[in-house]
Amino acid sequence: MSTWTIDQYEARTAAMRGRALEGVRFAAQSHAYDSDEPRHVRLRWAAVSLDANRRGHGDDPWDQARMHGQDFMLRTWIIEHLGAGAEPAWNPDVLAADTLAALTLDPAEAMALSSGWGSLPIEQLGHLRRHRGLTAHLDRLIGHLEPGPARDLLAAWIEVRKHLP
User: Fold this and answer.
1) For 102, what's the count of Cα atoms within 13 Å in the CB-facing half-sphere?
2) Residues 77 and 141: beta-carbon distance below 8 Å
């Protein structure tokens, strides 16, 4: 796989599903980080990585949290290093909305639960940990957002995240 072109990645991985796509996701992401390539090529590699990521995970909460977390981190990196773009994947406002949609608690609920996390049942503890992973990119995304309700809510999550297990 390491010698495949981007066209070969897209063609050969189109029918792949499940865990086999993890190697594709990782390799394509590495290509997206390659500063020797032009922006449009790096964005194409990032899109391949995002596609592999979305098709490579199951439906259980941990798989979904991992998928969203990897998606959010790569998209944030692209916005940070290559600049925002017109495509939804590279738009900070769309990323903010996608992040908020993935969170099933509001900041106040998460903060209340986190204050006594040591005595929580394992399922609730896992729920808080998934929220911690889903908000890992926010400190880097927040500066790319215009003032408004979404930015304010994500700023609250940045503070809450410091208290999550």
Assistant:
1) 28
2) no
Pairwise CA distance, residues 96 & 154, whole Å: 8
Tell me if 63 is assigned to some domain: no
- Using CA atoms, how far apart are residues 110 and 82, in angstroms rounded to an integer? 33
pLDDT at 58 over 70: yes
How far, in Å, CA of 62 to CA of 92, rounded? 25
Amino acid 16: pLDDT: 87
Q: Domain of 33? A: 1-56
Give the span between the Cα atoms of 159 and 165, in whole angstroms: 13
Both tokens of residue 158? 């940045």
Q: Would you report the helix, strand and coil content of the chain in percent, each value rounded to 5? A: 75, 0, 25
Q: State how far the Cα of 70 lies from the Cα of 79, in Å rounded to an integer.
A: 14
CA torsion sign, 63 to 65 to 67 to 73?
A: negative
- 85 closest CA partner among 52, 55, 48, 46: 46
pLDDT, residue 9, reads: 85
100 and 133 fall within a common domain: yes
CB 161 within 8 A of CB 130: no
- Cα-based torsion angle of the residue sequence 142, 114, 57, 77 in order, rounded to the nearest 10 degrees: 20
